[in-house]
Amino acid sequence: MKKLLLLLLLGIAAVNGASALETEEKPFPPLYVRKVAIGDVFTPFEFVDLDGKTWTNRPYIRKAMLILTGSWALRHDLRKWAEHISLRYLFAADTIWVYNPSGTEFADHRQRIEDKFRDFKTAVPVVIDVHSLIGRSLRLDYDIPTIIGIDRFNRLAFCHESPFNRMGQDKLYALIRTRLLK
Prior knowledge:
By secondary structure, the protein is α/β, with parallel strands linked by helices.
């Protein structure tokens, strides 16, 4: 009798637990994000920048996209990259700065992040990637400035890691000319 009662209680608990799981919000993005290789279709994303404009790589890209990313400690180097790219490649590609607050002092303070970037005044729009979608798609190390190129067919063209210097600029120019604008 005790076993029957126990089974009945477990059955009721399982049914209640299953219905509770069905009503919970599904996490976005998925727990596993496939690493994107050069030439593969890039992971779909949709971000809203600090000015309210939506940036997406689906379904109709008009021109190539350059994404800058790195840690908050590299913001001055990234700002130099943003100014350089916005001046030199304005008509070749849309450019955004994607900031991932995970693992930083800003991880749970979105308003503080937005205020810091508004005070910082960047040359390109800033989006906050709270789910680390870009970083997980490329397994990025945020300790070095990274420029990601996505061609107009939504394929990963390159992932260039370099501090802002003359050699880095020349390498980026060659990558954009040979892989992004072909």
